[in-house]
Specification:
The complex is a heterodimer of chains A (509) and B (664). Chain A is α+β, with helices and mostly antiparallel strands and 509 residues long. Chain A has two domains: 211 residues, no CATH class; 160 residues, no CATH class. Helices cover 28% and strands 26% of the residues of chain A. Chain A has a seven-stranded antiparallel sheet with strand order 2-1-5-4-3-6-7, with helices on both faces. In chain A, helix 7 crosses helix 9. With 664 residues, chain B is an alpha+beta fold. In chain B, a hairpin with a 7-residue loop joins strand 26 and strand 27. In chain B, the strands form nine sheets. In chain B, strands 15, 16, 17, 20, 23, 24, 31, 34 and 35 form a nine-stranded mixed sheet that branches. In chain B, strands 5-4-3-6-13-14 form a six-stranded mixed sheet. Among the domains of chain B are: 96 residues, no CATH class; 137 residues, Rossmann fold, CATH 3.40.50; 88 residues, no CATH class. Chain B is 28% helix and 29% strand. In chain B, helix 4 crosses helix 5, helix 9 packs across helix 10 and helix 11 crosses helix 12. The chains are: A alpha+beta (509), B alpha+beta (664). At the A-B interface, helix 1, helix 5, helix 6, helix 7 and helix 10 of A face helix 3, helix 7, strand 22 and helix 11 of B.
């Protein structure tokens, strides 16, 4: 295929998930999908190979291929079918993320798949929002949907749709799901239009060339990393205990292997990360290392091999709870991998960033407020770390103070950069954030966070950033809370979250 | 002579003569007894003039970015003009280049960093070295005041006058401008007004958030107010220079596509003044041709701007991004793609031909300009394709070096291992496929299919690409307005005078009392005009809203529009009013665009490259095509500052208004 037709086809093919994304954001109900853009759309080939993806949240990178793989394994699909799932043990990540898979046929022949995934506002479980801080079993986190036909011969299956009646707002859920199903139909139609224009043979040649192209360019990047074996270990904190995670990376001959042998076994709490989350963290790091213009498809993943011991924190067996795996453990896995690369690429890897999303949920029977808080990014060899920002696996916006006070019985007393919390150095680590919220109505508070025991490490003589602190003011008295906590808060009490500063880079003198 | 009618007061007759200046044709009115209309659009590369009396003249002169008013005054006619319309990039450039004045930020204590935290997200998802744009605000220039309002607008803690007086003295010493943004001031501005009265009595000039952008969301309102304070003195000075030099106060094109007098316009509302002109002109073309759904496609040297005109109306939004900052201001909804005549073609490390986003800009420009550009661009490719006449570029006033383009593209062809003709067509196709992708996206965003639109193409390069772009999108009709090379300037004189005010209210749609009261209050500060009220509406719990005209059946229309755009609605749900928006419009009497038809021959046929191969192609001069003329592709129609390409299989004609209509 000549390099001109290739580029023309690339614009046409990559446009498919892009248009699906616009359509999904337009037609969905949940604010998570419409505003925070917590959704992804992708196009796959007939063997399940990822061809193009439009995602807004890095944690979906590895999750989409895993979901399709599990559907292909379990279900025979025909023209007009669509399959739904959210089971973290069958290609899901955490329960609010629901994936819908649609096979695409042309003249009775399977030519590929379109898939989309979206974060629903609620899928049942013990707390509104389906992200309980204290879950110990998947069933407490909400409705678990294994790969299930939701559409057959072009008709929505009412029985399957009825499963959603177990959620807190079934009408909204059905609305969101209809939007997801409609988005896939649109994607399938767009793919067929492209085939009308270019023909199946040209399309398939493009697909194969495109994967080879991304593979070739990814290998070029891997070739710039010195060969060798690099390792690192870090600790997650759960229930005041250190939970070790470990990686050994082998770079050799344009290939890369990630082996997590040595990582802790799965735990009783919810910081277990299903394998798609672990994959997403790996793919995120690779994505940051390769040039932006390389099409993100299976070719990028080909030189990557991953081995995670079964039953471990990063590849748990059911029914382990997983709600924080997606939002907390994923951040630490990124820092773990970056740290391992440090030996090979000393000047390219920044000092440690806040490595947490600082998840805060406040609510009662009348309202649920959930948000994640930014912090300090690590400094690097040529610049200061950014302050008060989301890093790595998330990029969701804050809730403005004025929106928060209009919608919830809460009042914000401080929303500031946490001055001097970034590690000192030749280049300064980014500062964390201070957010102090007064509860105006008796409520329940959940916090899921990390980096509360020690702060993000500095590099090359740079100092560490300050550790995060979760504080509560009761009758004017200050009390520090642990990193993962669920408790009652009374009217007038104030919660003060100080997020970690980033590590500094280089010695100041 | 075709149909001539713009503002009837300008319907007069003059002599004109041709002089040459700066290598560019300038028509100058030599004898004047009567008033004329002048439109000036300042762009990054050229400043475009359209001068209209009974005939219409247009020309370009190079912009003078260090002091944009120089180019304007240089080209401005010596004689008195009746009306002066102006589109400017002064505001945007001062913002992007950090050339505003020193500005302090005054806010509630405990919230001093809101402009730095912004919305806590990062601009690039996959970048280990996170960098955000920061406002030009020094840490020592931030003042936190101990005071607080609640979400209901009630004062929880009043301010200490002496503290604010101290701050005022400090600001005075710094000789800086001040921006004041206190929490919930959109609801109750009392505290902000107290601060303002203290600062003002001390002689400090300040911008107040409840005046600049009375919308909730403290970061967006705060940053908009900050840039208002930061840019206001610069922009006002520029307008004053202009008034002095031209002897007349211009009507300035606002980002919203409406016009307002320079003395009253809010500088921050002119942030997208430039591109809005073309879209305003698009509304006129929609009106005179009766074609209601248009995609305006303005492709110049570095980028292409696209906007949707639906049912004859441009679509607008109430905020936009400039240089990494959110600005709350009504603006035409425009999408920009990094593809222009100067976009560079290159081969990536995987061996694939890519076009843009890097551009050769105007300096050094494409290789054929002979100004030191050494990378092949779209313009070089289209010159070799035969579409652009090297002797007639910019109306014949700039010679293009065909040999230089050929040499550079031969290199590219060797590197790709493909014949030269295929590389030329390849650059064209790749650029078109990229723009088609964006165009498709903006129509899907409006809940529409591209097939339901026609393309209105203008700018130097728009009319060259439009037909092939249409083909990619299944669009069957392309329109090219008169004077496509300066159409944004033409659009300036076609806009209505529009005054806008809006405010966040957050109440139920049933709360008519608050809505009516807000409409009255907003109207108090506005000039007269035909009033329209829009409400920003949503279902409770949603975080985005739709802007719909206020009226009896607004409830029904909201459910319907929600269904059209998003595929669902909930007729049983209550509706929340997020904001009230009052617009007063003074309609200007615009008939149709004047058309001047010259007598004379058309150039000979020449060889052009098409996907089908090399074809002897008819060439026309646009100025010599009579109304109702019809012919077919392949044809090249040369206009001053622009070229229209009609591919094989397409036909074209000139309609009663002088619009070239190209049909598949």
């Amino acid at each position: 295929m000549n390099p001109i037709l290739f580029e023309v086809m690339r614009n046409a093919v990559e446009g498919i998930p892009e248009q699906m994304g616009v359509s999904l954001q337009k037609s969905a109900f949940s604010a998570n999908i419409k505003e925070r853009k917590d959704e992804s759309c992708a196009l796959f080939g007939k063997r399940g190979e990822m061809i193009a993806q439009a995602e807004h949240i890095p944690v979906h990178l590895g999750a989409m291929p895993s979901a399709l793989e599990s559907v292909i394994k379990k279900i025979d699909m025909e023209d007009g079918d669509q399959i739904i799932l959210n089971d973290p043990y069958s290609g899901g990540t955490h329960l609010p993320d629901i994936t819908v898979v649609c096979p695409v046929f042309r003249e009775n022949e399977l030519i590929g798949y379109v898939v989309n995934r979206a974060h629903h506002a609620d899928v049942g479980g013990s707390t509104p929002g389906s992200m309980p801080g204290d879950s110990t079993n998947l069933d407490q986190e909400g409705l678990v949907i294994p790969p299930t036909k939701i559409m057959s011969e072009g008709e929505i299956l009412k029985n399957a749709m009825d499963i959603l009646k177990e959620t807190r707002d079934p009408i909204q859920r059905i609305g969101d799901l209809n939007a997801q199903i409609g988005t896939n139909i649109r994607g399938a139609r767009e793919l067929n239009k492209i085939l009308d224009k270019f023909g199946l043979d040209t399309y398939e040649e493009y697909v194969s060339r495109s994967l080879d192209y991304s593979e070739k360019r990814t290998k070029e990047v891997l070739d710039d990393i010195p060969s060798g074996v690099f390792s690192s270990s870090k600790n997650m904190i759960w229930d005041e205990q250190k939970i070790p995670i470990y990686v050994r990376i082998t770079v050799n001959n344009s290939r890369i292997m990630f082996d997590f042998e040595g990582t802790s076994s799965q735990v009783k709490g919810n910081i277990n990360a299903p394998i798609p989350v672990t994959l997403s963290a790996i793919y995120y790091v690779i994505r940051c290392m390769i040039p932006e213009d390389i099409p993100m498809n299976e070719g990028v993943y080909r030189p990557i091999k991953v081995s995670v011991p079964k039953g471990s924190l990063l590849n748990p067996d059911p029914p382990a709870a997983v709600s924080a795996g997606n939002v907390e453990t994923s951040q630490m896995v990124v820092e773990l991998i970056l740290d391992a690369f440090r030996e090979a690429l000393p000047d390219r890897i920044p000092a440690e960033s806040q490595s947490t999303m600082n998840n805060v949920t406040i609510g009662n029977s009348r309202f649920t407020y959930y948000e994640t808080i930014g912090g300090g990014a690590g400094a690097y060899s040529s610049g200061d770390g950014e302050s008060g920002v989301h890093v790595h696996m998330t990029n969701t916006k804050n809730t403005p103070v004025e929106v928060l006070e209009n919608e919830y019985p809460l009042r914000v007393h401080r929303y500031l950069l946490r001055k001097r919390s970034g590690g000192d150095g030749l280049y300064q680590g980014g500062d964390g954030i201070v957010r102090e919220i007064e509860v105006l109505e008796s409520s329940f508070l959940s916090i899921q966070s990390q980096m509360r025991v020690s702060g993000p490490e500095g590099m090359k003589g740079g100092e560490s950033g300050k550790r995060g602190k979760n504080m509560i003011f009761i009758d004017g008295k200050e009390k520090e809370l642990s990193s993962n906590v669920s408790l009652r808060v009374k009217t007038g009490q104030r919660i003060n979250i100080k997020t970690p500063g980033g590590g500094g880079w280089g010695s100041k003198d | 002579m075709g149909v001539i009618k713009i503002a009837p007061s300008c319907f007069r007759r003059y002599h004109s003569s041709l002089i040459i200046s700066l290598g560019i044709t300038i028509y100058v009115i030599t004898h004047s007894l009567f008033k004329m209309t002048v439109a000036v659009d300042v762009g990054g590369t050229f400043t475009d003039f359209v001068i209209f009396d009974d005939e219409i003249y247009h020309f370009k002169i190079p912009s003078t970015p260090s002091n944009p008013s120089l180019a304007v005054t240089e080209g401005y006619p010596q004689e008195d003009s009746g009306e002066f319309f102006h589109g400017t990039t002064v505001t945007t450039n001062a913002m992007l280049e950090g050339k505003g004045v020193r500005t302090v930020f005054v806010t509630n204590k405990g919230f001093e960093d809101i402009l730095f935290i912004a919305r806590q997200d990062r601009p690039r998802l996959y970048d280990l070295y996170v960098k955000r744009q920061k406002p030009p605000l020094r840490p020592e220039d931030i003042y936190g005041i101990d005071c607080r309002s609640s979400a209901e607008g009630e004062i929880l803690e009043d301010l200490d006058r002496s503290h604010v007086e101290g701050i005022a003295e400090d600001i005075l010493k710094k000789e800086s401008s001040a921006a004041v943004c206190l929490l919930h001031s959109y609801k109750d501005p009392e505290l902000e007004e107290k601060v303002a009265s203290i600062l003002k009595s001390a002689g400090v000039h300040c911008s107040l958030s409840h005046k600049v952008a009375p919308e909730y969301r403290e970061y967006e309102r705060g940053i908009t107010t900050f840039f208002d304070a930061y840019l206001r003195p610069i922009v006002k000075e520029y307008f004053n220079d202009l008034i002095e030099a031209c002897g007349i106060e211009p009507y300035v094109m606002k980002s919203s596509g409406g016009l307002e007098k320079a003395s009253t316009v809010n500088p921050i509302d002119t942030i997208f003044s430039g591109p809005a002109g073309g879209v305003a002109g698009g509304e006129l073309i929609s009106k005179i041709t009766g074609i209601e759904n248009l995609i305006t496609f303005d492709m110049g040297g570095t980028s292409a701007d696209m906007a949707v005109i639906l049912d004859g109306k441009m679509s607008w939004k109430d905020h936009g991004e400039v240089g990494g900052f959110t600005i709350l201001s009504r603006m035409v909804d425009i999408a920009t793609v990094g593809a222009g005549g100067g976009s560079i073609a290159w081969i990536d490390s995987g061996g694939v031909l890519r076009v843009g986003p890097e551009s050769a800009r105007s300096e050094p420009g494409p290789v054929c300009y002979g100004r030191g550009g050494d990378k092949p661009t779209i313009t070089d490719a289209l010159l070799l394709a035969g579409y652009i006449d090297p002797e007639f570029f910019l109306g014949g006033k700039m010679d293009l070096d065909v040999t230089a383009s050929r040499n550079i593209l031969n290199n590219l062809s060797d590197d790709l291992g493909l014949p030269l003709d295929e590389v030329i067509m390849g650059i064209f196709r790749v650029a078109n496929s990229k723009m088609a992708r964006s165009m498709k996206k903006i129509t899907v965003e409006k809940g529409m299919n591209p097939k339901e639109f026609s393309i209105l193409a203008f700018g130097g390069a728009g009319p060259l690409h439009a037909a092939y772009l249409a083909e990619l999108l299944g669009i069957k009709r392309v329109l090219i307005p008169p004077m496509p090379g300066v159409f944004s300037a033409v659009g300036l004189m076609t806009g209505d005078l529009i005054f806008d005010q809006s405010r966040t209210v957050l109440t139920s749609l049933e709360d008519k009392k608050t809505i009516e009261k807000t409409i009255l209050e907003l109207g108090e500060e506005m000039d007269d005009g035909e009033e329209s009220v829009y409400l920003g509406l949503r279902y409770p719990g949603q975080s985005h809203h739709l802007n719909l005209p206020y009226g009896d059946d607004v409830e029904k229309r909201f459910h319907r529009e929600h269904h059209r755009l998003y595929g669902h609605s909930n007729v049983n749900s209550s509706i929340e009013v997020v904001k009230v928006h009052v617009e007063r419009r003074r309609k200007r009497d615009i008939g149709s665009l004047p058309v001047k038809i010259e007598e004379g021959e058309h150039p000979p046929k020449r060889e052009c490259i098409f996907p089908e191969g090399v074809i002897e192609t008819r060439v026309f001069y646009r100025q010599r095509l009579p109304l109702d003329f019809e012919s077919e592709g392949p044809s090249v129609i040369e206009d001053i500052n622009s070229t229209i390409l009609v591919p094989p299989g397409w036909i074209f004609g000139v309609d009663q208004n002088g619009v070239v209509v190209v049909n598949k």
